[in-house]
Give the backbone structure.
Amino acid sequence: MSRIIDTFIAPPCHDKIENLYQDDHLVLINKPGGLLSLSGKNPQNLDSVHHRLVQIFPGCTLVHRLDFGTSGLMVIARNKAINAALCQQFSQRKVIKVYSALLCGHLAKDEGVIDAAIAKDPMRFPLMSICAINGKPARSHYRVVERFYHKWDDGTLLPLTRVQLTPETGRTHQLRIHCQQLGHPILGCDLYGGCLQPVTERTPRLMLHASELHFFHPASETWFSARNTSPF
């Protein structure tokens, strides 16, 4: 199999990282959409959450990542021991993550579960694919918050559904591909159908925001809950 080459070059991100909380063990931030979580191999993709924060908190490491276009809550470990403890919580699915999203169209059901295994798709990198045979188990919950129409300047009405998404697992692109599987891709998602419907190409960003993060603080062992309002 030929080696996969990533040709993506991230456009400059002028938005700042919002520091929501910090102590001697971890940092909680609000990541802007359009910023890489980790610097890429291409020197043109140097700017990232980690690159910026390591200047302020030497030795800090990422516990988890958000997609380039996704905004919202991220927890950063300030040392290796905290990183290991938090990673263990993520791997054991003790961390609760909640996202806000705008989906194309109006969902018929008010809530439901998407249970569809996800696999890498080497022929269409960086896309992932639904694959019951080779995929890793992936499960997401959705709950409708509101159904409405967005009116563009030219009068075009775009049906949208605001949802709360709660992934049980943490596969790459899980929420994006699961919403596509549901038949209602996330608005602004260029990889999984969120820019294909009429006028959706005008959307300025991926409409996905990590709005809640709940976990046990590794040092105090107390339940730590963070919430951040969606910008859309």
Observations:
- The CA atoms of residues 7 and 78 lie 31 Å apart.
- The mean pLDDT is 95.
- The chain has three helices and twelve strands.
- The longest strand covers residues 139-151.
